[in-house]
Specification:
The protein has about 300 residues and is α/β, with parallel strands linked by helices. It is about 45% helix and about 20% strand. It is globular and about 55 Å long.
């Protein structure tokens, strides 16, 4: 329900596997505990009939839908968008938990008609401790906020998919999520929210997308995502996904944030770690290797994707 000047909200959580059952339950409960709560909560199950049946039996406080589109996160999100009855639709990952105040802060910017989407901060919940070799500039590898994003509310090209919202009618008007882009099951592709965000802001002159750090969620990081092989694979697939975005949206918008991250944020981080190494912090060497390897893998994935597109 809407409160004061806040628009009504449909909260959408997409799930695909019973392996995350407890996390999915926690995600739903965290959305329902918000003050004020969303007008409706939709759990969209991605082509898993057994999971959908179990969810209908046990999650009586949410409406359970099955992905009516192409298998994958984009199709599931489109199913949620089309079913939403409220002016704003939020998306929360099935392995994330919203903190108190999440929904209030995420929706507050819609008091301005220029705001077409918002995104909040995503904090890693490590299975044990943070890997010492993982640079904070690469926390996007595990689906979390990374160094280089605004530290206060500010304009961004796109939100992080684990924690975002958008104007429902406008998102549908521009075509929703492109189902040829993004994650299917446990693969490491992405960028479906990036491509849609570019279309959202292009559809209205003067429109903006805001990153709101106060709208915070905690994102469970699975142990299998903490290996260096996963890190390299995720960086490669991010490059491949960016090639898809550039194909659909052009390089100017498709690589806007990546250019700044590569030209400004990463060089500063390398200098920081070189200073750390010089003062005896041995783990800095591993972070330097990770940054160089990550950039190389992402660049290789991007050029591989662009080459495949040209051949096709």
């Amino acid at each position: 329900m809407a409160s004061d000047n806040r628009p009504g909200v449909t909260a959408v959580i997409c799930a695909y596997t019973e392996k995350r059952w407890q996390q999915t339950r926690a995600a739903l409960e965290s959305a329902l505990r918000q003050e004020p709560p969303p007008a409706e909560v939709l759990l969209v199950v991605d082509h898993n009939a057994e999971l959908a049946d179990r969810a209908r039996r046990e999650f009586t406080s949410a409406s359970v839908l099955e992905n009516a589109g192409t298998q994958g996160l984009s199709g599931a999100r489109n199913t949620g968008l089309k079913a939403a009855t409220q002016p704003v639709t939020t998306f929360l990952d099935d392995d994330a938990e919203a903190r108190p105040g999440w929904l209030k802060h995420l929706v507050a910017p819609y008091s301005s008609p220029d705001v077409v989407a918002t995104g909040g901060s995503v904090h890693p919940r490590w299975p044990a401790t943070r890997p010492p070799w993982l640079p904070p500039e690469f926390d996007w590898v595990v689906g979390c906020s990374y160094r280089g994003l605004p530290e206060t509310t500010g304009q961004v090209r796109n939100p992080i998919g684990a924690n975002m919202s958008m104007r429902t009618d406008l998102a549908l008007e521009v075509g929703g999520f492109d189902e040829s882009v993004g994650r299917v099951g446990a693969n490491t592709r992405g960028c479906e929210e990036t491509e849609l965000s570019i279309r959202l802001t292009a559809s209205r002159a003067g429109s903006v997308i805001l990153y709101v750090p106060a709208a915070a969620v905690d994102h469970h990081v699975a142990p299998e995502r903490l290996t260096f092989s996963y890190f390299l694979r995720r960086c490669w697939h991010e490059g491949m996904s960016k090639a898809d975005v550039v194909r659909l949206s052009g390089a100017a918008a498709g690589l806007q944030r990546e250019r700044r991250q590569t030209a400004v944020v990463i060089p500063v981080a390398l200098l920081r770690e070189l200073r750390n190494l010089a003062t005896g912090h041995v783990s800095a060497a591993a972070r330097i290797v990770a940054m160089v390897a990550g950039l190389t893998a992402a660049s290789a994935g991007y050029f591989s994707g662009r080459t495949s597109q040209r051949i096709r």
